[in-house]
Design goal:
Distance between the termini: 12 Å
Number of helices: 5
Keywords: Antiviral defense, Cell membrane, Cytoplasm, Membrane, Transmembrane, Transmembrane beta strand
Number of strands: 16
Largest sheet: 12 strands, antiparallel
Mean pLDDT: 88
Family: Belongs to the bacterial gasdermin family.
Strand content: 35-45%
Order of helices and strands: EHEEEEHEHEEHEHEEEEEEE
Low-confidence stretches: 273-279
Structural class: alpha+beta
Shape: elongated
Radius of gyration: 20 Å
Membrane topology: Multi-pass membrane protein
Subcellular location: Cell membrane; Cytoplasm
Oligomer: single chain
Protein name: Gasdermin bGSDM
Amino acid sequence: MSFQIRLCRNDTTSYLRDTFKATPLLTPEARVKPLMVVARRNNDVQFRGELRFLLDDPTWSFDLRDEPVSSASLDKTRTLDAGLGLQILQGFLKGLNAGNAPIQASMNGIKSLSLSFQNVRRHFADLNELGLALASRRLNVSHPSLGVFLGEDPYQMLLVSDAIVSSEFSINNESAGEGSLEAGVPALHDYLAKAKTNLKRVVNTKSSITFEGNQLLTFAFSCVRLDVDPATGALQIMEAVTLRGDGTQESQPRIVLDNDLNEPGLLVFDDEPAIVEKN
């Protein structure tokens, strides 16, 4: 299963889904960026690498766009149980190569917390421009990595179109005066002074700890599905059709990887080892 943690319905994942059709990651990753190929079959979701290396011209390039993202839903998430929040935090720290940071000591006495994201940006492909660019390209149908997308019971070929990225996030104590995040900070700073991580700095107050990385990491992403002609390798972006509650249909190119609206999941690619048990 690719979704290893499930949350109650909340404003943050709803915003990402409704605005960008984006799927949140348990562990933020720099490699998840536009024009990366993802394979999906049922609940199996695998990261497959760059599209250009599957094309008839591996030197193909495409200009991406960039814009800031601002939302109160990202400024602070809904309150989480401290145990669940710790699992999510450990996933985020793993993305910063600090997965062994002794963060548990800072959580003593804390019953609930929230997360905040700063310096959030969207890296994305203009889909009209991308569709035009792909119209003149073909997949190299003899490429050995294309086997999973062809033949019987093939995987769907998805292409990352949008990456929601950030270099900075915080945990906030929401325990109504109980506990303090400061307790474990000395051990955390001692660890960071000795370990080789991708953290630039850690800033703390009594009620929050902010982690700033030295690069932007993707914590949510959107996909489009590519239709492939197995004979010629011709590509086109497919339209995803969803049925609204009132019986009408909505057609748009970005697809939703998780259909559970009430308990949205955090994705871990099936080509990586599990981090936590499904909760």
